[in-house]
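Q: Sequence in, structure out?
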Amino acid sequence: MRPRLLLPAAAAVMLAVVPNAHASVVSRLYAPLHIHPRSAPSPAFIRSHFNTITVQANMLRRYRARNVGLYTKGTRSNVGTYPSSWYLHTAGGARIHDRTHRSYFVMNPGSSGWRHQVVKNCHPAPSLCFLDAMGDDGYSRMSARPTVSLSWWRAQTTSLANYVENASTRYHVIANNLITVTHPKFRVAYEMFGRTSASRSLDVLRRTKCFCFAKFGTEQGARYGFTLFLAGAGKGDRISVGTDSQAGKWWDFFTRAKSLGRAVAPAKTTGSLLSRRFSHGFIVVNVGRTAQRFSRSGVTRTVGAHDGMIVTD
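A: Exactly. Output:
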Protein backbone atom coordinates (compact mmCIF):
# COMPACT_ATOMS: atom_id res chain seq x y z
CA MET A 1 0.00 0.00 0.00
CA ARG A 2 1.60 3.26 -1.13
CA PRO A 3 1.24 6.12 1.36
CA ARG A 4 -0.73 9.27 0.52
CA LEU A 5 1.49 12.01 1.85
CA LEU A 6 -0.29 15.34 2.01
CA LEU A 7 0.77 18.03 4.43
CA PRO A 8 -1.41 21.16 4.56
CA ALA A 9 -0.25 24.66 5.43
CA ALA A 10 -1.65 24.18 8.93
CA ALA A 11 1.14 21.68 9.62
CA ALA A 12 3.23 24.27 11.44
CA VAL A 13 0.54 24.51 14.13
CA MET A 14 0.00 20.76 14.18
CA LEU A 15 3.68 20.05 14.70
CA ALA A 16 4.11 22.39 17.66
CA VAL A 17 4.72 19.51 20.07
CA VAL A 18 6.26 20.28 23.42
CA PRO A 19 9.85 18.92 23.49
CA ASN A 20 9.94 15.66 25.39
CA ALA A 21 12.27 14.49 28.13
CA HIS A 22 13.19 11.07 26.69
CA ALA A 23 16.94 10.55 27.02
CA SER A 24 16.99 8.48 23.83
CA VAL A 25 14.46 8.18 21.04
CA VAL A 26 14.88 4.39 21.00
CA SER A 27 13.21 4.30 24.42
CA ARG A 28 10.04 5.02 22.41
CA LEU A 29 10.27 1.75 20.49
CA TYR A 30 7.41 -0.67 20.96
CA ALA A 31 7.32 -4.39 20.11
CA PRO A 32 3.78 -5.79 19.59
CA LEU A 33 4.77 -9.42 20.13
CA HIS A 34 1.13 -10.44 20.54
CA ILE A 35 0.64 -10.36 16.76
CA HIS A 36 2.78 -13.40 15.89
CA PRO A 37 3.81 -14.97 19.21
CA ARG A 38 5.31 -18.10 17.63
CA SER A 39 7.81 -16.09 15.56
CA ALA A 40 8.60 -13.43 18.20
CA PRO A 41 12.29 -12.73 18.90
CA SER A 42 13.80 -14.35 21.98
CA PRO A 43 13.01 -12.96 25.43
CA ALA A 44 16.69 -12.07 25.90
CA PHE A 45 16.77 -10.05 22.67
CA ILE A 46 13.56 -8.21 23.50
CA ARG A 47 14.72 -7.44 27.04
CA SER A 48 17.94 -5.84 25.73
CA HIS A 49 16.33 -3.82 22.91
CA PHE A 50 12.76 -2.78 23.80
CA ASN A 51 11.31 -0.95 26.80
CA THR A 52 7.69 -1.50 25.81
CA ILE A 53 6.01 -4.70 24.59
CA THR A 54 2.57 -6.27 24.35
CA VAL A 55 2.11 -10.04 24.58
CA GLN A 56 -0.49 -12.79 24.69
CA ALA A 57 -1.43 -14.11 28.14
CA ASN A 58 0.67 -17.26 27.74
CA MET A 59 3.77 -15.12 27.07
CA LEU A 60 3.65 -13.09 30.29
CA ARG A 61 6.00 -15.33 32.27
CA ARG A 62 8.69 -15.42 29.57
CA TYR A 63 8.90 -11.84 28.34
CA ARG A 64 10.12 -8.96 30.48
CA ALA A 65 10.37 -5.22 29.78
CA ARG A 66 9.91 -1.94 31.61
CA ASN A 67 6.36 -1.70 30.23
CA VAL A 68 4.54 -4.96 29.52
CA GLY A 69 1.06 -5.01 28.04
CA LEU A 70 -1.50 -7.81 27.79
CA TYR A 71 -3.43 -8.26 24.55
CA THR A 72 -7.17 -8.93 24.70
CA LYS A 73 -10.27 -8.27 22.63
CA GLY A 74 -12.21 -5.10 23.37
CA THR A 75 -15.31 -5.87 21.31
CA ARG A 76 -14.91 -9.51 20.25
CA SER A 77 -15.23 -12.89 22.00
CA ASN A 78 -15.27 -16.52 20.92
CA VAL A 79 -17.34 -17.41 24.02
CA GLY A 80 -20.97 -18.03 23.12
CA THR A 81 -22.42 -18.59 26.58
CA TYR A 82 -22.54 -15.05 27.98
CA PRO A 83 -25.92 -13.34 28.56
CA SER A 84 -27.64 -12.25 25.34
CA SER A 85 -27.32 -8.54 26.19
CA TRP A 86 -23.55 -8.80 25.99
CA TYR A 87 -23.70 -9.39 22.22
CA LEU A 88 -24.68 -7.20 19.30
CA HIS A 89 -27.62 -8.43 17.22
CA THR A 90 -29.29 -7.81 13.89
CA ALA A 91 -32.81 -6.39 13.69
CA GLY A 92 -34.01 -9.98 13.46
CA GLY A 93 -32.28 -10.90 16.72
CA ALA A 94 -29.36 -12.93 15.31
CA ARG A 95 -25.96 -12.55 16.91
CA ILE A 96 -23.37 -10.81 14.74
CA HIS A 97 -19.96 -12.31 14.00
CA ASP A 98 -16.69 -10.74 12.97
CA ARG A 99 -16.61 -10.85 9.16
CA THR A 100 -12.91 -11.78 8.99
CA HIS A 101 -12.68 -14.06 12.04
CA ARG A 102 -16.03 -15.83 11.93
CA SER A 103 -15.52 -17.74 15.18
CA TYR A 104 -15.69 -14.45 17.10
CA PHE A 105 -18.90 -12.74 18.13
CA VAL A 106 -19.17 -8.93 18.08
CA MET A 107 -19.77 -7.80 21.63
CA ASN A 108 -21.87 -4.90 22.88
CA PRO A 109 -19.46 -2.20 24.14
CA GLY A 110 -22.35 -0.55 25.99
CA SER A 111 -23.16 -3.65 28.04
CA SER A 112 -22.21 -3.31 31.70
CA GLY A 113 -21.71 -7.06 31.90
CA TRP A 114 -19.34 -7.13 28.97
CA ARG A 115 -17.44 -4.14 30.38
CA HIS A 116 -16.91 -6.00 33.65
CA GLN A 117 -15.64 -8.98 31.66
CA VAL A 118 -13.11 -6.85 29.78
CA VAL A 119 -11.81 -5.51 33.10
CA LYS A 120 -11.50 -9.12 34.29
CA ASN A 121 -9.60 -10.01 31.10
CA CYS A 122 -7.21 -7.10 31.72
CA HIS A 123 -6.60 -8.02 35.35
CA PRO A 124 -3.30 -9.91 34.73
CA ALA A 125 -1.87 -6.96 32.75
CA PRO A 126 1.40 -5.74 34.33
CA SER A 127 1.24 -2.14 33.09
CA LEU A 128 -0.75 -1.98 29.82
CA CYS A 129 -3.89 -3.64 28.47
CA PHE A 130 -4.28 -3.66 24.67
CA LEU A 131 -7.95 -3.68 23.64
CA ASP A 132 -8.40 -4.78 20.04
CA ALA A 133 -11.21 -3.94 17.57
CA MET A 134 -12.12 -0.63 19.20
CA GLY A 135 -12.10 1.66 16.16
CA ASP A 136 -14.30 2.20 13.12
CA ASP A 137 -12.84 -0.98 11.61
CA GLY A 138 -14.43 -2.92 14.46
CA TYR A 139 -17.80 -1.60 13.29
CA SER A 140 -17.27 -2.09 9.55
CA ARG A 141 -15.96 -5.62 10.03
CA MET A 142 -19.30 -7.05 11.17
CA SER A 143 -20.86 -10.00 9.34
CA ALA A 144 -24.30 -8.38 9.29
CA ARG A 145 -25.91 -4.99 9.77
CA PRO A 146 -26.33 -4.13 13.47
CA THR A 147 -29.14 -2.16 15.03
CA VAL A 148 -26.71 0.53 16.21
CA SER A 149 -25.04 3.35 14.26
CA LEU A 150 -21.37 4.14 13.79
CA SER A 151 -21.74 7.24 16.00
CA TRP A 152 -23.22 5.03 18.75
CA TRP A 153 -20.31 2.60 18.32
CA ARG A 154 -17.75 5.38 18.67
CA ALA A 155 -19.42 6.75 21.80
CA GLN A 156 -19.73 3.34 23.46
CA THR A 157 -16.22 2.10 22.61
CA THR A 158 -14.82 5.36 23.99
CA SER A 159 -16.88 4.86 27.14
CA LEU A 160 -15.68 1.24 27.37
CA ALA A 161 -12.03 2.32 27.06
CA ASN A 162 -12.51 4.93 29.79
CA TYR A 163 -14.28 2.39 32.01
CA VAL A 164 -11.45 -0.13 31.75
CA GLU A 165 -8.82 2.62 32.14
CA ASN A 166 -10.43 3.81 35.38
CA ALA A 167 -10.85 0.28 36.75
CA SER A 168 -7.19 -0.05 37.78
CA THR A 169 -4.27 2.15 38.76
CA ARG A 170 -1.82 -0.59 37.74
CA TYR A 171 -2.30 -0.52 33.97
CA HIS A 172 -3.19 1.88 31.18
CA VAL A 173 -5.50 0.92 28.33
CA ILE A 174 -4.37 0.95 24.69
CA ALA A 175 -7.53 1.21 22.56
CA ASN A 176 -6.75 -0.07 19.08
CA ASN A 177 -7.65 2.35 16.25
CA LEU A 178 -9.94 4.47 18.45
CA ILE A 179 -8.62 7.64 16.80
CA THR A 180 -11.80 9.76 16.93
CA VAL A 181 -10.98 10.89 20.50
CA THR A 182 -9.01 13.93 21.61
CA HIS A 183 -6.61 13.83 24.58
CA PRO A 184 -8.17 10.80 26.30
CA LYS A 185 -6.75 9.41 29.52
CA PHE A 186 -6.18 6.06 27.79
CA ARG A 187 -3.62 5.37 25.06
CA VAL A 188 -4.56 4.83 21.42
CA ALA A 189 -3.02 2.38 18.95
CA TYR A 190 -2.98 3.62 15.35
CA GLU A 191 -2.16 0.90 12.85
CA MET A 192 -2.09 3.12 9.75
CA PHE A 193 0.60 5.55 10.91
CA GLY A 194 2.54 6.79 7.87
CA ARG A 195 0.37 4.78 5.48
CA THR A 196 -2.32 7.45 5.38
CA SER A 197 -1.54 11.11 4.72
CA ALA A 198 1.26 12.63 6.78
CA SER A 199 -1.19 15.22 8.13
CA ARG A 200 -3.56 12.53 9.41
CA SER A 201 -0.75 10.54 11.01
CA LEU A 202 0.67 13.58 12.76
CA ASP A 203 -2.79 14.70 13.87
CA VAL A 204 -3.27 11.40 15.72
CA LEU A 205 0.06 12.05 17.48
CA ARG A 206 -1.09 15.54 18.43
CA ARG A 207 -4.45 14.41 19.88
CA THR A 208 -3.50 11.17 21.65
CA LYS A 209 -0.78 9.26 23.44
CA CYS A 210 -0.15 7.06 20.43
CA PHE A 211 1.13 3.53 20.18
CA CYS A 212 1.76 3.96 16.47
CA PHE A 213 2.30 1.14 13.98
CA ALA A 214 4.42 2.14 10.96
CA LYS A 215 3.77 -1.04 8.98
CA PHE A 216 6.42 -0.74 6.28
CA GLY A 217 8.51 -3.79 5.39
CA THR A 218 11.39 -2.13 3.52
CA GLU A 219 14.34 -0.21 4.97
CA GLN A 220 13.25 3.01 3.27
CA GLY A 221 9.63 2.70 4.27
CA ALA A 222 10.54 1.83 7.85
CA ARG A 223 12.92 4.78 8.05
CA TYR A 224 10.22 7.06 6.66
CA GLY A 225 7.67 5.91 9.24
CA PHE A 226 10.15 6.23 12.10
CA THR A 227 11.37 9.72 11.21
CA LEU A 228 7.82 10.95 10.57
CA PHE A 229 6.94 9.71 14.04
CA LEU A 230 9.96 11.49 15.56
CA ALA A 231 8.89 14.72 13.84
CA GLY A 232 5.66 14.80 15.85
CA ALA A 233 6.19 12.57 18.88
CA GLY A 234 5.31 13.95 22.29
CA LYS A 235 5.22 12.63 25.84
CA GLY A 236 4.06 9.03 26.08
CA ASP A 237 4.08 8.24 22.36
CA ARG A 238 5.51 4.90 21.17
CA ILE A 239 6.27 3.40 17.76
CA SER A 240 6.36 -0.09 16.25
CA VAL A 241 8.28 -0.17 12.97
CA GLY A 242 7.74 -2.97 10.47
CA THR A 243 5.06 -5.30 9.21
CA ASP A 244 3.12 -7.65 11.47
CA SER A 245 5.59 -10.45 10.74
CA GLN A 246 8.48 -8.12 11.68
CA ALA A 247 7.24 -7.25 15.18
CA GLY A 248 10.28 -6.81 17.42
CA LYS A 249 12.66 -6.22 14.49
CA TRP A 250 15.71 -4.04 15.16
CA TRP A 251 16.38 -1.87 12.11
CA ASP A 252 19.95 -0.68 11.44
CA PHE A 253 18.97 2.99 11.64
CA PHE A 254 17.84 2.50 15.26
CA THR A 255 21.51 2.24 16.25
CA ARG A 256 22.22 5.68 14.78
CA ALA A 257 19.08 7.09 16.35
CA LYS A 258 20.37 6.10 19.81
CA SER A 259 22.76 9.05 19.66
CA LEU A 260 20.14 11.70 18.87
CA GLY A 261 19.29 12.39 22.51
CA ARG A 262 16.07 14.22 23.35
CA ALA A 263 14.03 16.57 21.17
CA VAL A 264 14.83 20.21 21.97
CA ALA A 265 12.36 21.97 19.66
CA PRO A 266 9.16 21.33 17.69
CA ALA A 267 9.44 20.24 14.07
CA LYS A 268 9.79 22.83 11.31
CA THR A 269 8.17 22.59 7.89
CA THR A 270 9.84 23.71 4.64
CA GLY A 271 7.82 22.62 1.64
CA SER A 272 7.55 18.82 1.82
CA LEU A 273 10.43 18.56 4.32
CA LEU A 274 9.93 18.29 8.07
CA SER A 275 12.93 18.66 10.34
CA ARG A 276 13.36 18.47 14.09
CA ARG A 277 16.36 19.24 16.24
CA PHE A 278 17.54 16.90 18.99
CA SER A 279 20.24 17.45 21.59
CA HIS A 280 22.81 15.57 19.50
CA GLY A 281 21.56 15.81 15.94
CA PHE A 282 18.43 16.17 13.87
CA ILE A 283 15.98 14.27 11.68
CA VAL A 284 14.61 15.23 8.29
CA VAL A 285 11.66 13.52 6.63
CA ASN A 286 10.40 14.07 3.09
CA VAL A 287 6.62 13.60 2.85
CA GLY A 288 6.60 14.48 -0.85
CA ARG A 289 6.73 12.41 -4.01
CA THR A 290 10.05 13.72 -5.32
CA ALA A 291 13.53 13.86 -3.81
CA GLN A 292 14.38 17.10 -1.99
CA ARG A 293 17.68 18.79 -1.15
CA PHE A 294 18.40 20.64 2.09
CA SER A 295 21.39 22.36 3.62
CA ARG A 296 22.50 22.33 7.23
CA SER A 297 25.79 23.70 8.61
CA GLY A 298 27.12 24.25 5.11
CA VAL A 299 26.45 20.66 4.00
CA THR A 300 23.86 19.89 1.33
CA ARG A 301 22.07 16.54 1.44
CA THR A 302 19.30 14.87 -0.55
CA VAL A 303 16.35 13.05 0.98
CA GLY A 304 14.48 10.67 -1.28
CA ALA A 305 10.74 10.75 -1.79
CA HIS A 306 8.85 9.22 1.13
CA ASP A 307 12.08 8.78 3.07
CA GLY A 308 13.78 10.13 6.16
CA MET A 309 17.27 10.86 7.39
CA ILE A 310 18.86 10.71 10.85
CA VAL A 311 21.92 12.92 11.29
CA THR A 312 23.93 12.86 14.50
CA ASP A 313 26.57 15.35 15.69
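The longest strand covers residues 67-73.
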